[in-house]
Amino acid sequence: MRVGFVGFGRMGGNMVTRLIQHGHEAVVYARRPEVRVEAAAKGAAPAASLAELVGQLRPPRVVWMMVPAGDAVEQTIADLAPRLAAGDVLVDGGNSFYKDSIRRAEAVKRRGLHYVDAGTSGGIWGLAVGYCMMVGGEPDAVRTVEPLCRALAPEGGYMHVGPSGAGHYVKMIHNGIEYGMLQAYAEGFGVLHAAPFKFDLRAIAALWNHGSVVRSWLLELAERAFAADPEIRGIRGYVQDSGEGWWTVQEAIERDVPAPVITLSLLQRLRSREDEDFGDKVIAALRQQFGGHAVRATGT
Ligand SMILES: NC(=O)c1ccc[n+]([C@@H]2O[C@H](COP(=O)([O-])OP(=O)(O)OC[C@H]3O[C@@H](n4cnc5c(N)ncnc54)[C@H](OP(=O)(O)O)[C@@H]3O)[C@@H](O)[C@H]2O)c1
Question: Which of 142, 147, 206, 221 has the most CB atoms at less than 10 Å from its CB?
Fold first, then answer.
């Protein structure tokens, strides 16, 4: 089938390539001319505006957004929705907050449009391995986009998980779990690195990937990372996030579900971004005040 694509970055670029490899056609809207050239080189029809993108599709049109969550999605829908017609389907494949997706689905429904929230996992490896697709929306709308989801996913890696918002809900929790798993591996390797033995961390990661209960794809990536830079000297321990960890923690609190591992892994990411924590200075100052405990002067 023919799909319109908005967003040709790390995810969108590879997803369009995979769709074309599976016999689909794509029209790609990209803001920058050099990206349109790249899209054309990969076999897509480039569009210089959303109006041009819509003009190159036939009803019922399917437009897949693969842009950052928040303003970019909001802006794209605001520009796109008035150009679409009843029966057309908008898909958000990015990591949007599920409550935003429910609200957007209701808003576009008033124009007769359908909305599908397609949580997508697979990162830059998805092109070769396939993407895990966690899809929410009305059954008819999901049925329309199913051929695309099946082409993107490996065998068994696509599921219509529920109504609008459900796809992004499952993706949010998926990423929350990822936070906790990454933190557990980080702490384990941190202790191994400090151990009184000179462990080869790449070899330990490889060992654990053979029959151990903690074997995983993340450990395979750890093998690659340690092989490239055994001490990870080239990378600062500054860990970004793109929202899903926060939302998982908020959701857990809203629903009275204790989620200590995911919560602490989120807090650790915040800590990773600070060279010096003001709170730590307060603790050191107070210990000095009440107990005369030693402190270290700034710069030592
Ligand atoms: N990277 C991952 O591993 C991963 C995995 C799963 C899900 N996701 C989610 O997938 C979505 C895309 O991620 P990504 O990694 O592909 O991001 P990315 O590499 O930064 O690409 C974002 C794309 O969106 C375009 N864009 C941004 N704002 C736009 C706007 N207002 N109108 C039109 N196009 C706009 C960008 O165009 P310009 O080049 O012109 O800025 C670029 O083509 C995000 O929601 C992300 O959280 C990412």
Answer: 142
